[in-house]
Amino acid sequence: MRPILKRIYLDHNATTPLHPLVLKAMLPYLERDFGNPSSLHRFGRKVRASMDEAREKVASLIGAKSEEIIFTSSGTESNNLALKGIVEANRKRGNHIITSSIEHPAVLNVCKYLSQHGCRVTYLPVDRYGLINSEDVRKAITKKTILVSIMHANNEMGTIQPLREIGRIIKEANSKRPNRVYFHTDAVQSVEKIKVNVNKLKVDLLSLSGHKLYGPKGIGALYIRKGVRISSLLQGGEHEYNLRAGTENIPGIIGLGKACKIASRERIKEEKKLLKLSERLYQGIREKIPDIRLNGHPKKRLPGTLNISFESVEGEALLLALDLEGIAVSIGSACTSGSPEPSHVLLALGLSYEEAYTSLRFSLGRENTKEEINYVIQILPSIVKRIRGISAIGRKK
Ligand code: PLP
């Protein structure tokens, strides 16, 4: 194998590197400060105090109160707790859930499970840019609706949904009915990348994940607005306000708190930088490579996310060719049992199977530089040309 000259990581929507200061903050809790936060002695009390501080930092990043934050093991668990927990606690009031067709599997597969257990689920469509029409939410609400779950920003193409508008519509509907419709958002991709405030967005529940914001893996959080009726999924001790039994993952929680604190400080600067870098990448690709298309909204999009279809180029072939050059990107399709299915997100935008197979996701992050982007722009055209020369996917006549 050829030696790799560079290593350029452009897959931050998959996961982010741990911030060195996050690691530093976590280390004492893997060594000296090992106490159980439920213990009454000083070992426990010290850890409890640090956990409370971390909870405050997470809450502060999203404009919540610290007692509204529940620590979980991941974004996936937060979504499970939100959806199943609301259904379980509100069964007598209704069984209808509204979501979108482009959610992450951590919502879609929970909805599938719930529909096999007595729920009815409405999947709202999106337009060609991946946007939900908020009026569709209004039309879909029935007497039996208990929950609307719409992701904040899509992981594959970055489109940001009009949550404020949807929140306003739900609030309006709630003012005319005895049973409240709850509003959940999967904000795993948006927290840290853009401003997220639970009150401005008018959401009742919000999921986030440590490893998407330069924190550790294996830790997530669910914001639950005070007063929301929700059941726990786990039976056990009284941890996390009785909503998530099990001794807490303290190093993970401390890491998540630190990552949120850094995000509160750096977000605006980072957002500007990422916008500039991804625009540079997009313009570079547009100028040098014919027959490409941007998937997702041209403006209402996460600052570092760029999903591009390269006509006649299989995304997987391009990914592997770039990997050989030390550049890590992602394709929009999930590989199941060795056979890559085209992305449900890209199909929902109206792309054909063939077009969906030709897409590639670049997701930029904090450590990326202008020089790295220039390098990608420099080598990508010849790789695309080479693959087009041998492509099995038909070209436009
Ligand atoms: N939701 C979205 C939008 C995601 O992008 C992801 C991960 O890719 C998840 C949920 C799952 O998060 P976790 O990996 O923390 O389980």
Brief digest:
The protein is an alpha/beta fold. It folds into two domains: 8-16 and 267-396, Aspartate Aminotransferase, domain 1 (Alpha-Beta Complex); 20-262, Aspartate Aminotransferase, domain 2. The chain has helices at 20-30, 42-61, 75-89, 105-115, 134-140, 163-175, 198-201, 239-242, 250-288, 315-324, 344-348, 353-357, 370-390; strands spanning 8-9, 69-72, 96-100, 120-124, 145-149, 182-186, 205-209, 220-224, 292-295, 305-310, 327-328, 330-331, 335-336, 339-340, 359-363.
What can you tell me about this protein's structure?
The chain has 397 residues and is of the alpha/beta class. The chain folds into two domains: 8-16 and 267-396, Alpha-Beta Complex (Aspartate Aminotransferase, domain 1); 20-262, Aspartate Aminotransferase, domain 2 (3-Layer(aba) Sandwich), CATH 3.40.640. It contains 13 helices and 15 strands. The chain has a seven-stranded mixed beta sheet, with helices on both faces. The structure holds pyridoxal-5'-phosphate. Pyridoxal-5'-phosphate is lined by residues 74-76, 104, 106, 151, 155, 186, 188-189, 209, 220. Pyridoxal-5'-phosphate (PLP) binds next to helix 3.
